[in-house]
Amino acid sequence: MSETPASMSAAEIAQAVSHRKLTALAATEAALSRIAAHDKVLNAFTDVTADRARAKAAAIDAAIAAGKSVGPLAGVPFAVKNLFDVQGLATRAGSKINRDLPPSPRDAELIERMEAAGAVLVGALNMGEYAYDFTGENVHDGPSRNPHDPTRMTGGSSGGSGSAVGGALVPIALGSDTNGSIRVPSSFCGTFGLKPTYGRLSRARSFPFVASLDHLGPLARSVKDLALAYDAMQGPDADDPACNVQSVEPTVPLLANDVGRLRIAIAGGYFQQNLFPEAVEAVARVAKALGATQTVELPEAARARAAAYIITTTEGAALHLDRLRKRPNDFDPAVRDRLIAGAMVPAVYVDKAQKFRRWYRAKVLELFQSVDVILAPATPCTAPKLGQVSFTLDGVELPVRPNIGIHTQPISFIGLPVVAVPVPLEPLPIGVQIIAAPWREDIALRVAYALEQMGVAAAPAPRGI
After folding, report:
1. Which pLDDT tens digit goes with each residue over 253-286?
2. Once rounded to an integer, what is the mean pLDDT over residues 306-332?
3. Is 181 part of the annotated catalytic residue set?
4. In the chain, what's the furthest Cα-to-Cα distance?
5. Angle of helix 277-290 versus helix 441-453 axis, rounded to 10
6. What are the residues whose beta carbons fall under 8 Å from the beta carbon of 392, sequence distance 6 or more?
7. 81 catalytic per annotation
8. Which strands, in side-by-side order, build the sheet including 294-296?
């Protein structure tokens, strides 16, 4: 073949493996070689499961030789944020404390579903401690680094996932998104990312952060790969009470559908504020390509962000109270202090935040009676420098960490499905959110695919490795 497995998409690898033009073992070895060559710079991986991967790949090749079907992701290497349970590894969730946990006896549900579809797990990925992070800078494992400029952030908390996919170490990675932790790394690292509807994909056997806000989902270098992974992971799961949706909606056959009849609007007001020129340019390019001229305003989006903060910090604090009491010095000090602050938030504020959440969700859902898709920036800027603590916007100095997710929090707060699409600006990419109504991931993916076909959205080749 003219292409090497490392440069192929997941769809191309699966087709080649299924038709015996490429072995699953060769695809796996290519990924492992690329990890060995480039992860010294990117620091995306915390664990490489090479022996497991080779055994799985050999089993796939044997099954194909025996005439058996091995699934739509046959031989595709993938990796997961290290809050997913991986059999034989302690689920560290980016922390020092969790490394003392016993090895997981079983894989996370989504890993099992990916491997049932023929994918091959090659490792676990770096992340912000306990997923309470927007930068990708882990004090215990070191920062994951941006594949387009290793002096810059990947975004978090799924920073290793963004780095591994953006750096073409693997074609697909799994991450989690509570307030933006798939969409922010996708934006900074130049990948496609899917935050599904809350409850669409099982979270069973993954380490939680905020149960009422946590989502799991894929990052990939193409929309088809994103959809293939999403389709493989769909389905209800009794082990996750939130994941009780009974319908499974295959999206790959729908990607080529015409999007010209969709009603596409641009998020105004709050979502057009606090933006650097590159974010404005990215949304404008996407809107122009789609012919979107209508603007809609999400009511009280700033208050939604504030309420999301309250729910995040109080639920997160409740989860970690015992660790905070027993091992406070083993936390990242910044994470520890935010959790301690959350433990002291008065209950009346939490009650108000939850009541507002119900009101806000109803108001936003009303918008989808007149539109099918809403466009919004994924991040206010391209990737900041590692260690950067503030940036200046319109003459005002703002802290980096809390302001990276200002445009993602009001969306995940009510569990809407979003595809983040990378717009390959110079010198760095930046993402745009394609937001749809609950359970309409298919629409968001179709719009993302149309943008990819038009060349407006694309995962750029990594320049920093």
Report:
1. 888 888 989 999 999 999 999 999 999 999 999 9
2. 98
3. yes
4. 66
5. 90
6. 398
7. yes
8. 45-48, 120-125, 77-81, 172-177, 215-220, 192-195, 418-423, 430-436, 373-377, 264-267, 294-296
pLDDT band, very low/low/confident/very high, at 3 (cuts 50, 70, 90): low
Convert the pLDDT of each residue in 66-87 to its tens digit: 999 999 999 999 999 999 999 9
Which residue out of 9, 95, 144, 157 is catalytically annotated?
A: 157
Whether 221 shows a pLDDT value over 60: the answer reads yes
Residue 145: what pLDDT?
A: 98
CB 376 within 8 A of CB 271: yes
Give the pair of three-digit tokens for residue 364.
């936003």
Q: What angle, 0 to 180 degrees and rounded to 10, lies between the N-to-C axes of helices 10-18 and 24-42?
A: 150
- Residues 81, 186, 195, 222: which is the catalytic one? 81
9, 161, 181, 412: the catalytic one is 181
> Nearest 5°: CA angle at 140, between 139 and 144?
70
Query: Is 95 one of the catalytic residues?
Result: no
What is the pLDDT at residue 453? 97
Residue 78: beta bridge partners?
121, 172
Confidence of residue 184 (pLDDT cuts 50, 70, 90): very high
pTM (global) more than 0.90: yes
CATH 3.90.1300.10, domain 5-305+344-453, yes or no: yes
Q: How many CB atoms lie within 10 A of CB 325?
A: 8
Packing angle, helices 223-233 and 441-453, rounded to 10: 160
Residues in the chain: 465
Distance, in Å, from the CA atom of 174 to the CA atom of 79, rounded to the nearest integer, reads: 6
For the chain, domain boundaries = 5-305+344-453
